[in-house]
Amino acid sequence: MADSGSEDIAVIGNTDLTPSESENNVKNAMVEKGTSLLKKMEISVAEAEKRTGKNAVNMQETYTVYLIETRPVDAASEGTNPVPDSLWRRYSEFELLRNYLLVTYPFLVVPPLPEKRAEFVWHKLSADNMDPDFVERRRVGLENFLLRVASHPDLSSDKIFYSFLTEENGWKETVFETGFQAKADSRLKALNATFRVKNPDKRFAEMKHYGDELQSVISQLLRVRARAADRLYGVYKVHGNYGRVFSEWSAIEKEMGDGLQSAGHHMDAYAASVDDILEEEEHYADQLKEYLFYADALRAVCRKHELTQYELEMAAQDLTSKKQQREELATGTIRTFSLKGVTSKLFGQETPEQREAKLKMLETQIEEGEELVKERNAECEEFVKSAWVDIERFKEQKDHDLREALISYAIMQISMCKKGIQVWNNAKECFSKM
Amino acid sequence: MSGSVVDNTVSSGNSSVAIPTDISGQILDIDEDDDLEVFSKDTTLSDGSSLNASMQTSSASMINQYKFEEEEEDADTKDIFVTVDNPESHVTAIETYITYRVETKTTRSEFDSSEFEVRRRYQDFLWLKGRLEEAHPTLIVHPLPEKFVMKGMVERFNEDFIETRRSALHKFLNKIAEHPIFSSSEDFKIFLTAGSGELTSHKKQGPGFLSRMGETVKAVAAAVRGVRGRPQEFTDMQEYAEAFSQKISSIDKVTQRIVREQKEYLEELKECGPTYALWSQSEEELAEPLKNVAGCVDKCCKETEEQVKHLNDHLIPVLHEYVLCADTLKAVLRRRDNIQADFEVKTEALATKKADRDAMRDELDKVEDRLEWANNALKSDWTRWQKGMRTDLRSAFNDTAERNVSYYEKCLAVWESFLQSQRTDAEGNGNVDFS
């Protein structure tokens, strides 16, 4: 792994760091990881645009497209600034890409997309997907997604991903040609099925439980935070009324007029300051949301493990029962209940030839069964190995990123307090001149 | 005192209120959003200008009494200190009521001693206010806290209510003590010094009920007729009083709304800390910073709680007082108008009637004196009141701003210490390159 020493660029040394700078530190950390892809190119989602067109059922629809820009790294460092390569993609294409990755790399914790619909909104935030603020936050989230994938040791070398970034036309067809769709359907079915695994890997069971807890607690946090943001907005905005009334009142006072009037201006400034404050907090909420969705991806990996384990157990079980059947047939004793056994008891035993045939078939099945068990066992082991590596990687990333998020939250609070101190000190000065 | 006041205090024994009709017409415009209105309007005094024996002095000396605008009240020369504290509940067969300890320390010669301690109930304060208003109808008496709560289910004997009332009563007495005219009132002295028996018998003196009623009828007649030739300066004051009333009421409402919103914000914030704490239980590396953040959020909650309390205990009572003051201003102007109306009526009568001209001229002279005296008194006290208002409100807003600064400073410190802890943590783990 590349230079982990400079991973955390002086984040905490400077409390004047703004939250967006802190976010950049997270991005830089990703870039510094130095996957071969990122060594070659810079990736960004530069713009968003509204388009209208006809959809699949020939109806007019409005949708947003996002401009993906890629630029070779060497060119930038050489000082020349060539025009970047770019193409437009809409959200559904990102979804397609992610679904492909999920199916193709079930043992990896695949980075999540930003939310499809605005959730955890408070009254001022729009739940409308066309709202410019939402679109902007989504743009940032999509860029983040691409960088996450590009900085992943395994995902970054995927061809489909590369062509997503570079081939505007025909990319969709390429994806479908991989035939992942069929796997996608069965994967979905499997993930939603209920089955009992007898011997899951303990670590994965714990991880799944952790994923559940993480999802639950982050949801709760986002909900509570949104409500608090709503209330805080109210507090600040009501102060704007002071501005208006002080101004009116100053008109009827002689000595007090000036002090009141200027104090009123500060109250207006105070009321207005909440917009920026809460916008910054939305970034924080987005960071939390990313890990809310990551929790889902983590759980999917654990579920997949359960599935492979289950299939192994099923194969093993099947093998055991076949072996048992062989034994019964060979020794003529019936230890296990089987319809065959009952019917043969009722209707008489089979002929020796029939029994011979059956035995032979069973032998073949057992051979095949043993092969299957070996295969499945290998699959399971392979899955556990690769998945665990990625889970460990994910854990480290999560710990780092969430810690950064908490730090940026603290920085936001500090900034908010500093603004408050300034405004109220100013107001105090005006009041003292009343 | 008008009859209606006496009736009210007796019937205030139960807290389910029969709202007296003369107050109901002047209930503060409360929109649905407002919660508890602890202070509604108290119009204990009718607009009658009842004659008080102490006013029967020469006009010249009366006018001289009111040239007090040159006097600067210096805190160093304050020679009387009044405190209201120690509420106690009393239960009798008829009613339950609260008395407050009123302690006076003074060096004034007209007081027999230098220290007094008496117990007074709200009724007594009401009586004192009425007496002062009677004696000086165009002087501005600081308002009393309200008798009862108009809206909401707050009991009269709720702790917060009692404390709010006590504080307001304390301010009331101090405003009286600071007032150059009121503080030398005999009624005031008796209020501060008399035993309860003495006070009761003193209360029974003063213009009889019937004579007061007589004056009231005349006053109503004058009020209905209205004043014709009001001097511009008083019209200006009227406009000011109206405007001030509107503005201060708005500010009062805005402040109450702020308190409401802050409280609701606090409720939500209180859930944040525990959520972070809950999260920390699922984590290993993150457990410490999460717990830390939980602690920070909880601390900020506490600070927010304190800040709201300060608003409630300091700014809101002052604003309420001045909402009531605005009504006092208007009442004082009305009373002055009524005296002038009376004068105008008598002037007209003298011009038209033939009989009793001498008696009528005498009366006219008296009223003319009264009017001149009332006008001067009002003008002086108005200026004095404005100065006081300015000081009080400036100080109240100043304090609030200071408190808000302190609130943000404390929260800032909380979060900076979190950052600090993360920094030392990171350094400790050797993860961070601070170069």
Automatic annotation (TrEMBL), chain A:
The keyword Phosphoprotein does not apply. Residues 1-22 are annotated as: Disordered. CDD domains: BAR_SNX4, PX_SNX4. GO terms for biological process: positive regulation of autophagosome assembly; protein transport. Belongs to the sorting nexin family. PANTHER family: SORTING NEXIN-4 (PTHR46596). This is Sorting nexin-4-like. The lineage of its organism: Eukaryota, Metazoa, Chordata, Craniata, Vertebrata. The gene is LOC107660619.
Automatic annotation (TrEMBL), chain B:
It holds the Pfam family Vps5. Residues 78-199 form the PX domain. Residues 350-377 form a coiled coil. One of its GO terms (cellular component) is early endosome. The keyword Electron transport does not apply. The keyword Protein transport applies. SUPFAM superfamilies: BAR/IMD domain-like, PX domain. One of its GO terms (molecular function) is phosphatidylinositol binding. Keywords: Coiled coil, Protein transport, Transport. Belongs to the sorting nexin family. PANTHER family: SORTING NEXIN-4, SORTING NEXIN-7. This is Sorting nexin-7-like. The gene is LOC107677296.
